# Entry
Amino acid sequence: MPHTDQVKKEEYRLRRNAKNREKYARTRAVSGPTEEELKKDRERAKIYRELHREEINEKRRVLYRDPSSVDRIRQRDRDRYAEDRYKRVKTSRRSNLKVKIETIDAYGGECAICGEFHIECLTIDHSFGDGGKFRKAMLLKTNRACGGSSLYRFLRNQGFPKDLGLRVLCFNCNCSIGAYGYSPYET
Ligand SMILES: [Zn+2]
# Structure
């Protein structure tokens, strides 16, 4: 195939791609992606990742070994974050709530003392029982604080282990026990 033909072919391909992207973006902008479209996207991305796993890994290895690119990536992420901070905060709040619900449900779904079940009032109590064992288990995997959504994410990653002496308490019971050693809701 002559060289010019190849160039033409490539040009045609690129233009067609750009056109399709534009068309696709337009329809999405009007109605937003449907559940089905999102699912298709995720599946497509997954297949791509599987087919190109080694290639992707190698690119990342090269990228992350270069300190200047790490700085560049950091700056890029900062810029992106500043661009739509509101949206990101909303998204992360949603995903934090999701992991909290999963965790609370996995450990009983209600306060172990008084039966309070509103998610807003519940927390994971990890100050009783084998606290040392728990902290060690968590610190081994991550060096993050043992609380809040990083705690929930850690537990989810571990498949919600039942042998760490964790239970669900409401904030009232949790704080009372912390301050007075008992909860007035105890029967
Ligand atoms: Zn309670």
User: Anything to note?
Assistant: The chain has a mean pLDDT of 82. The chain is about 70% helix and 5% strand. The helical segments are 3-31, 35-51, 53-65, 67-83, 85-106, 131-141, 148-157, 171-180. Residues 3-86 form one domain.
